[in-house]
Amino acid sequence: MRRRLERRKLRLKLLEELFADAMAQVDPTFFMRLRESKYHYEDKTTGHSSKHILFINEDYTDQDYFKAYPTIYHLRAELMKDGTDDIRKLFLAVHHILKYRGNFLYEGATFDSNASTLDDVLKQAIETITFNCFDAKAAMSSIGEILMEQGKTKSDKAKAIERLVDTYTVSDAANASGKSQKEQIKEDKKTLKAFANLVLGLSASLTDLFGSVEDLDEDLKKLQIIGGTYDERRDDLAKAWGDEIHIIDDCKSVYDAIILMSIKEPGLTISESKVKAYNKHKDDLVLLKSLLKADRKLYNTMFKSDEKGLHNYVHYIKQGRTEETSCNREEFYKYTKKIVEGLSDSKDKDYILSEIELQTLLPLQRIKDNGVIPYQLHLEELKTILDKCKSKFPFLNEVADGYSVAEKLIKLLEFRIPYYVGPLNTHHNVNNGGFAWAVRKASGQVTPWNFEDKIDREKSAAAFIKNLTNKCTYLLGEDVLPKSSLLYSEFMLLNELNNVRIDGKPLETKVKSASY
Fold it and tell me: For 345-442, where are the alpha helices, taking DSSP H only?
């Protein structure tokens, strides 16, 4: 975490350096104001008379900016469409993209408006699950359609997927267990329901998915993939379920793909989808306020109270001023549902309750689920913005170190230090008792556009493997083989075969050789 945040700071520092000269001609104190934005007005050193941070023009201030762009996604969406003449707006949009650039789980993949990504991960996940007579391959498209269906709750989707067993049953399926087809169908429904619950973020029974396991703690028999809970529990689940953890990983990929499709609507970019979510939040809020306005006590409790433990709107949008007052979406929905159910029947009441069931009421911009957004979607927006602005800002086309400023910005987003290179600070080399093993070609600052000139990839990769190699405790100074290496596995097999006796005689060499 610490190293990741340090590299983010370095990205943003390099971004400032690329914009520095061009920004100085327009607004010399812009970067200083950003850095000092956390200080009280009297403690700032910029010397300007305005209390505004981003824009201090007489005819355009922060007030005008935030009126035009309520969120950063509004700015990004407009820049993709029309570009801008203000370098500060360009910087703010690029800064946000580089700061929150997305994950690198799907390097080399492309993401479009259709469901191809979901289809791929769904196929990989469901083909590894064992069924008795359910034809999972034939049902694949139907499962995908149900998962993407709008206006249906997660529970209803899980039930609809479970019922597919009746439709896609192979009547002449081989049955080595001796069970009747009715029993097989019953088992398959349990398995498919567990799978559906898992990928939809509901609580799923892992024993229904994989079968029962002896001496297993109750908390390891169930799993709900939501937020960051899976990452926290994965190691314990891997110990309990062994190789089945890879199937759970595949289900997590399906869950992420579904969440991504709920964030990025078909045909829209991430920013456009976020703007749409903002507008929905705004409309839902007007509706909820109109419902509660008649009862002033209820209204104030929902929209003004800041009591600890109260899961109202104030805490839902993280605007509480006292300690431990924020709440998550589920807690807010539960609280809101309880209040709204007590109101008199109306069309607006039915809408609010329906949106709560669908978990789409008052969507927020900054949520943990944003972590499933791959960097390719942000890269697509960055390229579009730069293409729109290149003609208006000549510095983007200036070339140095073999790359233009626009190309360097793209490299800042898409570049990631390979895992086998590791930390770049050679002062903390393993030979000096540190944790770095990278081998340099030349000294100096390493950037995405000079990485190949500064770092020796091949030697760093060799040093990475060498750093992971342990030394033998019997033959001092000698390297040991990895326990899972092919050579050591061969040795272990022969070691077992050497103890096998047939009629009191050991196996012949040619018999042992034929075993591997």
Answer: 347-358, 375-389, 405-414
* Residue 298 burial class via C-beta count within 10 angstroms: exposed 0-12, middle 13-18, buried 19 and up: middle
Cβ contacts of 458 within 8 Å, gap of 6 or more: none
Q: Kindly give, in sequence order, each residue whose CB lies less than 8 Å from that of residue 299, ignoring residues fewer than 6 positions away.
A: 289, 292, 293
Three-class DSSP category at 489: helix
Cα separation, 288 vs 97, whole angstroms = 33
CB 343 within 8 A of CB 291: yes
- Choose among 117, 142, 232: nearest CA to 196: 142
- Using the CB atoms, write b or e for 67-81: b if 16+ within 10 Å: eebebbbbbbbbbbe
Q: Which structure tokens are listed for 80?
A: 């993709």
Phi, psi of 399 (to 5 degrees): -105, 135
What is the DSSP annotation of 100-158? T--B-TTTT----SSSHHHHHHHHHHHTTS--SSB-HHHHHHHHHHHHH-SS--HHHHH
Cα 437 to chain centroid, rounded: 29
Residue 37's contacts (CB-CB under 8 Å, 6 or more residues apart) are 53
What residues contact residue 424 under an 8 Å CB cut-off, 6+ apart?
417, 436, 438, 446, 455
Q: Residue holding tokens 């022969």?
A: 494
Task: Give the model confidence (pLDDT) of 203-243 as tens digits.
Answer: 999 999 988 777 788 888 899 988 777 888 899 999 889 88
- Per-residue H/E/C for 325-362: CCCCHHHHHHHHHHHHHCCCCCHHHHHHHHHHHHCCCC
Predicted TM-score (pTM) of the model is: 0.84
User: Contact, 197 vs 158, CB < 8 A?
Assistant: yes
Residues in the chain, overall count: 516
Q: Rounded CA gap, 46 and 29, in Å?
A: 7
What is the tens place of the pLDDT at every residue in 241-259? 988 999 999 999 999 989 9
Among 482, 437, 439, 484, which residue's Cα sits nearest to residue 464? 437
